[in-house]
Amino acid sequence: MIQFADQKQEFNKRPTKIGRRSLSRSISQSSTDSYSSAASYTDSSDDETSPRDKQQKNSKGSSDFCVKNIKQAEFGRREIEIAEQEMPALMALRKRAQGEKPLAGAKIVGCTHITAQTAVLMETLGALGAQCRWAACNIYSTLNEVAAALAENGFPVFAWKGESEDDFWWCIDRCVNVEGWQPNMILDDGGDLTHWIYKKYPNMFKKIKGIVEESVTGVHRLYQLSKAGKLCVPAMNVNDSVTKQKFDNLYCCRESILDGLKRTTDMMFGGKQVVVCGYGEVGKGCCAALKAMGSIVYVTEIDPICALQACMDGFRLVKLNEVIRQVDIVITCTGNKNVVTREHLDRMKNSCIVCNMGHSNTEIDVASLRTPELTWERVRSQVDHVIWPDGKRIVLLAEGRLLNLSCSTVPTFVLSITATTQALALIELYNAPEGRYKQDVYLLPKKMDEYVASLHLPTFDAHLTELTDEQAKYLGLNKNGPFKPNYYRY
């Protein structure tokens, strides 16, 4: 009979209190009480104590961080080393720019998902000369052991899996509001960090050179600021760069949607009826994966062009009300709010699975389910049954937050493409001469998009065909690119 040394000790421990936190903290308690399906090395003995109440130091004596458990750093370092093998472009950037240090003097404050892949990006930025402070953009997606590894390596990181809403904003504030250090660049995912600085520390923008934003939600907020004349620094829209749109949004979600659903529900997809709300790049990826697994897929859309694409791809275009009573799974990926309302939730069939693949938790009206007549029952990490008085229940995943990063993992190689795009955008904005970029939102230059793609081709032993001088002249192109005009749709 084989027994691991700590096995008995671990399984006999039980949390004795939930602690001082909001309802969202108590609801999500078991996401940090046990080993989650995302394989986070969480020590259950520490779960009852908020990281904010702990005094921790890394091996160098620094306490400028707040993570779940600094002792998990060794596990996190192994995960980062594995991720490095699948992120060739970032590793290439480190080698090519080691001597130049294009980010020397940059003080970057970041708010993204804190995963092994993000850690590779952060350490690359550090190798290029930048100082970084970091918080999480999602209360469930942080890998505690990775956050610990970053803190051990000297990065001020303020994040842990299962934060409350209060913790979330506290962590962002700790990154921004620090004596003797002021950011001059922002790397954001969702716009919360940018929003916080505008709200609390608007004078900081006098020294900030630019914002790099990677999500649909965050980009939308930037365009709103620009339209209102309130955007006071240049911003780079990484989300709509070709490499981000096609690879992170489409190919990443095509794989991770199945992973997230399988890990949380163990369900079989063949024959299941699924409605996917939104047929942008994320929706396209989700639909393709589910269709390949034998699911019957319906699509809802507001945009006639995306709607026509869905029809041509063989999907039935419907209004949500038309199918809400019969579908087995509801997936949102619109970037909008109140896509699935309480009325929809009331009409769903028993055991319908409800989840979100968009960045923000506004797509499903989860707040409407926090009422006395409904019972919440935690099934496993990130899986809740919400039970109606008549016994009907729905299966809510990650409390309506981003499914793949909350409940599973995403392909490292795809994130390498996005992270390299972010790094190049930071380098471009930081080093741009005064006047090149005004107080507006910009797309990544086409040449940079092509460069990101080219850095990843050696992984596949791929060989690009080169234009002859005659061919380049005939097409009116430079032999080294860019090869497509800005209006080209890939």
From TrEMBL:
UniProt cross-references to InterPro entries, sorted A to Z: Adenosylhomocyst_ase-like_sf, Adenosylhomocysteinase-like, Ado_hCys_hydrolase_NAD-bd, NAD(P)-bd_dom_sf, S-Ado-L-homoCys_hydrolase_CS
Give its E.C. classification number: 3.13.2.1
Q: Where is this region: Disordered?
A: 1-63
Positions that bind NAD(+): 280-285, 301, 404
Cofactor(s) needed: NAD(+)
One GO biological process term is: S-adenosylmethionine cycle
Q: In which pathway does it act?
A: Amino-acid biosynthesis; L-homocysteine biosynthesis; L-homocysteine from S-adenosyl-L-homocysteine: step 1/1
Task: Please give the catalytic activity noted in the UniProt record.
Answer: S-adenosyl-L-homocysteine + H2O = L-homocysteine + adenosine
- Residues that, per the record, bind substrate: 115, 189, 214, 244, 248
- Return the SUPFAM superfamilies for the record: Formate/glycerate dehydrogenase catalytic domain-like, NAD(P)-binding Rossmann-fold domains
Q: Where is the composition biased (Basic residues)?
A: 14-23
Point to the regions of Low complexity compositional bias. Answer: 24-43
Q: Which residues cross the membrane?
A: none
- Pull one GO CC term from this UniProt entry: cytosol
Superkingdom is: Eukaryota
The alphabetical list of record keywords is: Hydrolase, NAD, One-carbon metabolism
The Swiss-Prot or TrEMBL record annotates one GO molecular function as: adenosylhomocysteinase activity
Residue ranges annotated for the S-adenosyl-L-homocysteine hydrolase NAD binding domain, each copy included: 249-410
In terms of Pfam families, this protein maps to: AdoHcyase, AdoHcyase_NAD
Instruction: Give the co-factor note.
Output: Binds 1 NAD(+) per subunit.
Family note: Belongs to the adenosylhomocysteinase family.
Protein name listed in UniProt: Adenosylhomocysteinase
